[in-house]
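Reader question, answered in our methods column.
A reader sent in the components of a multi-part assembly and asked whether the whole thing could be modeled at once rather than chain by chain. We filled in our standard form and ran it. Here is what they sent:
COMPLEX SIZE: two components
ENTRIES:
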Amino acid sequence: MIRIAVRSALGSLLAAIVGVLAVAVVSIRWVFPQVVPDEFSLDLAARTLRSPSTHDALVSGTVLSIAVTLIALTLAWPAARALARSSGGGQGLVVAIMFLPSIVPSVGLAMGISVGLLNLGVDGSMGAVILAHLVPAVPYAVAILTATLMRYDHRLDLQAATLGATPLQVLRHVTLPQIRAGLVAAAALTFVVSWSQYLLTLLAGSGRVITPTMLLFNATAGGNPVVIATLALLVTVPVIVLVSFASGSPENGSDDGRVST
Amino acid sequence: MTGLLTIRRRSLGQLARSPMATTAPVAAVVGLGAGYALVEGVGASFGFGAPVAGVPIGLDAYRRVLASPTFWESACFSLWIAVASTVLGVGGGTMISWWWVSRPGRIRRIDLWLVNLTVSIPHVAWAVALLALLTQSGFVARMAAAAGVLDRPDQFPVFFADSAGLGIIAHLATKELAFVTLVTLPLATLRARHAVTTAETLGATRSQRFRLVFLPTIAPALLPATAVVFAFALGSYEAPALLGGQRPRTLSVVALEYFRDSDLTRRADAFAVSTILGVVVLAVVGALWLVGRSSVRPTRRADR
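And here is the structure of the entire assembly that came back:
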């Protein structure tokens, strides 16, 4: 009973959030007491989506978040393997470092990182924003991959190696198929962390690297409600798709309720 | 010294596979990024470093910031928002975990999906959606009007740009509630469920099961989550910038305004404000660590 209440509370909040945005996207005239808009049209939403600024933001946001995801996963993989296998011996220090970006107030973190990039002379570039995003993104990748690898039976790797498989073959035919779900979850959620950043993108990119999330923030200052709702959906829909991928994996929805984040 | 000798004795291949070498890249990226931001920020607040070149070294920035007429107003507003949203988020998240543990049956995939989604939707989009729902002419007000509860928009409570920061608290609390649920769930379902059932069999009351079994079992996840959630609420920018008004403003909004000022002395002020925020977070993290030391130990001992 209570579980249904919790589910319906969160569910209706999310449904209301997506629903209101979806209705706002098509509303031309929506006078106060009306629950449904008086006039509908897709024109302005379509024009917003087709505009060069939206197109550019979508391209740079996607490229940025994919790059951050790939780099974060590559860096996180060996670390997660070590963390999942061993205990003690510097492990505490690494975990503490991974906590750092969550504990340092995000305004201070963004200001400090942007000054660092400025000192390196690379601020305002795509590379600078990628570097900046790695700071909050890598800990997510490490956490999810470590949780995944902790549940993986490493004796399978040894067995395959004993039977003559090369390290690459072990990885391709034994390890990866077993942990695919966790890997997908790590990739999806790391992408989402990067995709969601506003302040870090603004400061590290000196306002020159524009993502959909930044476009949305800028539009809220006096923008047209239809444009704002369209951009909000543009930012939210990929996240819904990716989270569905991530929580659709059997590991995450298994009986014991283990989650990877 | 002994460490050095050990390293020399090892072959290079072994060294490359050692836990230290494999975790070094992530530790470097995250540690250098966040650590540099921290050192640079604290230094700049005292007038050190290139970002505040020409600003005299000393406590001037702190004097200016603390003497500003709106500082204490902003500090109280920030603390109120951080404490209120942390209490609601941690309390709500703990209750959801408890409900899931104390009921029989598995956790549905849709529940996890909902919680995951609430955590993951970008803050800017979440704030925009809350505005669409909760402004005086928003969707909820229209539903209330349709139900005959109110006639005019101004009869609906003000949630945004208000002096209590209700909209900001609602934003942070909903996101944090889902985060705390997600972080405590593994311990809750893997360890607490079994322990709670055992306690029930042994005759523990519902409140005893919650206080003496459930809370200590999830404490190793709950306490760090509380620290993260508090730090996030205190330092977050998007929600207070989008949902707050001109006065009072949170310290995070004030810090960013100072930072983007063309006057470099203002930049030192920005870092002074963010250093003050950091000190508050440090105090809270320290307090939670002390709580953790006294509350977590008995469960660990019982584990062995």
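What stands out: Residues 237 and 252 of chain B are 6 Å apart (CA to CA). Chain B has one domain: 53-303.
Send us your own complexes using the same form.
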